[in-house]
Specification:
Structural class: alpha+beta
Shape: globular
Number of strands: 10
Strand content: 25-35%
Radius of gyration: 18 Å
Largest sheet: 10 strands, antiparallel
């Protein structure tokens, strides 16, 4: 994980953002970035497991961890001049993950990331980014993430419906007090050092009253509490930011659904289930 490279992509993408003209009809890079021989830094993995609540020292990777491995490649694509959505203000709105079995922490892997396409959203334009983790030609893990660029739209477009926010709350299984440094700790373990997560001052520059938790931290924390093994599919929708420090409640039911709520808001909803084909 090259921290300097990631910061370079973040800065480059930020500088290019004012010149982007987002539209669901815009062209986008068709490049499929492939990185062979990827090995997991076990000390960083342990830090990730601790901040997210996963057991440390397990033989297999947590189901959300390959997203961390692929994030630098995704950043490279989304900061590219040819990517039509501005990196500044881009919101991670969902992730769908399929793990096809145990993914050993000590193996070497091939990572591949590409942009699947753009789609209209009622609040702007969404891009879908696909990440795949492979070993010896076999796809072991895959995900589809959607990222939203907000802009004026012509009428209602497809997207995540507001009524999902009004769904009845799931049974509460825990209350979590989140420290103000969760964003910095997760950023150090994952490499995602977006300033909105790191400090109240930098978060205010982007319109947040305090730093907010990474969306991928919230889903990882919920999945760690739920527990997963073997082949599994995880779907999560990011509904509202989690301010740091703060208090949230974790809810789940026997069907595999889970959620995170706080301050009267639904922050995250998702489910863990048996896989039924590719993610998405």
């Amino acid at each position: 994980m090259d921290v300097t490279s990631e910061l370079t992509h973040l800065i480059t993408g930020a500088l290019r953002s004012p010149f982007k003209r987002p539209s669901p009809d815009a062209d986008f890079p068709r490049t499929r970035l492939v990185l062979p021989g990827v090995r997991v830094d076990l000390s960083r993995l342990a830090a990730y497991e601790r901040v997210c609540g996963f057991p440390t020292g397990e033989s297999g990777l947590p189901v959300t961890y390959p997203h961390v491995l692929g994030f630098p490649l995704a950043m490279r694509l989304m900061s590219d001049r040819a990517f039509p959505l501005p990196l500044l203000g881009l919101v991670h709105t969902s992730i769908d993950i399929v793990r096809h079995g145990v993914v050993p922490a000590t193996d070497a892997y091939e990572l591949a990331v590409h942009i699947e396409g753009l789609a209209p959203h009622r609040r702007g334009t969404e891009a879908t980014v696909v990440t795949e983790l492979m070993s010896r030609g076999e796809r072991l893990w895959e995900s589809r993430s959607t990222y939203l660029a907000r802009h004026r739209t012509q009428g209602a477009a497809s997207g995540h419906r507001e009524e999902r926010r009004q769904a009845p709350a799931l049974p509460v299984l825990g209350q979590w007090r989140l420290a103000g440094d969760v964003g910095r700790r997760y950023g150090a373990a994952s490499g995602d050092r977006n300033p909105i997560h790191l400090h109240p001052l930098t978060a205010r520059l982007f319109g947040f009253p305090r730093a907010i938790a990474h969306g991928m931290w919230t889903v990882a924390r919920c999945v760690a509490a739920h527990g997963t093994s073997g082949s599994v599919a995880v779907r999560a929708r990011f509904m509202a930011p989690v301010l740091l420090p703060g208090v949230v409640t974790y809810g789940a039911d026997a069907s595999g659904r889970f959620e995170l709520r706080g301050d009267g808001r639904l922050h995250l909803s998702g489910e863990v289930r048996a896989p039924s084909g590719a993610a998405g």
